[in-house]
Specification:
alpha+beta
């Protein structure tokens, strides 16, 4: 089971990484904070101060269209916010 699924690279996450040295990742739903910390340290070779996790629920929506009732679903996921030590950084764009 892979702990880290992908990094979150949005405007808000990029601003948070530049100002506060915090990085966001989508992680496996069953991963705990210790497993996430170990996976990030092993993958990027950085030292971590703290890990915060957020669970996002499944979102369902319904629309009334000409074709009738249309339903959709957006799957839930778990997000981890990693606080790195002073002077540490992660470069997501070095492999391009």
């Amino acid at each position: 089971m892979s702990i880290l699924i992908k990094p979150i690279i949005t405007e808000k996450a990029t601003n948070d990484s530049e100002l506060h040295n915090r990085y966001a990742f989508v992680v496996a739903k069953k991963a705990n904070k210790l497993e996430i910390k170990g996976a990030v340290e092993a993958a990027y070779g950085v030292s971590i101060l703290s890990v915060k996790t957020l669970n996002y629920p499944i979102k369902r929506n319904t629309k009334f269209t000409k074709k009738g009732l249309v339903t959709g679903i957006k799957s839930g996921y778990k997000k981890a916010i990693i606080q790195l030590a002073e002077g540490e950084s992660i470069d997501f764009y070095n492999n391009l």
